[in-house]
Amino acid sequence: MRRFTPYLFLAILASTPCLETRIFADADSIPEETQQVETPQTTVEEKKEVAKTPERVKKQIPAFTGKITKNRVRMRIQPSLDSPILKELSNGDFLIIDGEVDDFYSVKAPQELKAYVFRTFILDGTVEGTRVNVRLEPTLDSPIIAQLNSGDRVKGMISPLNSKWMEIQTPETTRFYVAKDFVDNIGGPNKLAEISKRKEEVEKLYNEAYATSHLEMQKDFENIHLDGINATLNKVINNYNDFPDYSEKSKSLLSTLQDSYTKKKLAYLEAAAQTNSQTLQAKTQELQQKDQLLTQMQYIKSSNEETPLASNNTPTAKMAAWAPVEQAAYEQWALEQASPSLEEFYRQEEQQAVVLKGILENYSKTVKNKPGDFVLINPANHLPIAYLYSTQTNLQDKVGQQITVRGAERPNNNFAFKAYYVLSVE
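and the corresponding structure tokens:
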């Protein structure tokens, strides 16, 4: 039998790769407490994924703002038709282009895109590790889009999807790729900032007009004022035709307002006829003055005067931000109705409302698709009851108070608790 000498043991040990080196080569695979360690084979493959460089050389070009010219244009992680697809772009989307690889442009990461890094390697906002992988999703199976090194600074928050990961802004060096055939050069890189500013302006104008029209159409007929709303919507149509979606939505809202206004007028006349025929003539004269507003509610014929919104109930920014959500809820409901008026929609919502009681708190987390700006807390166990928002009631004034609300259920976007649109507060 052959003896096993200490010299032979040392020789074997020297020829064996260090297990710790193999396991920790990929930074985000270091175990955290009971986390399962990524296998060395997977680690090597992912290192190759990050390190691989297309045989074609990336060429730096003067940066410019690119406009997507087709729908469903794919943004990819690498300049190859076999590369994973990050997202699909739509006609009219804008990107910053700063390089090219054969038939592809390299583009900066979209501002709204989030990235994820393993929390083990972030200490007080500083990276502690070499080649720390940055991924698209908080999972080791997600594609790697960048790597960070010791000393790099990051800002982020614990991921609501997986608490072992940190959600951060996509690193500045990250680039994705779009086929050249579907991108037009519309100007320098500053052009995107100009477009973004105009988009913020048109969004604000439309949202304020929608929220104010919602408030106006809930009033009694004789108290309705539409001139300011009409002027704002026509301003969107005439002055922001580079945003056709908002132009079409403004035209649709004008049509809906005109229809609702006419129905209120007829109902008002019928009620007046039943009460006192002597007062009907006087009321009709008032209505003739209001009819002049209808002639102003045409799609394109508005003068471009900047008239402030005529409402004493101008909503807050938080309230106005939810106006498109309510518009979508109304439009979905209207598809199945014979007489789809905005007034009837909220009348039905009121009939089906749910009564909720609790303490109102702000819900200020910056997460995607959050179902409300506020959360109702159970005072007994301090757990959430529901998420809340409103376009007609200023809930901010009620924060910290125990309240009773009547709410219409809305989609909660897969959050843990139900979401409601607040119709009234006690």
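(Above: one complete record from the training split.) Confidence is low (pLDDT under 50) at residues 1-55, 292-313.
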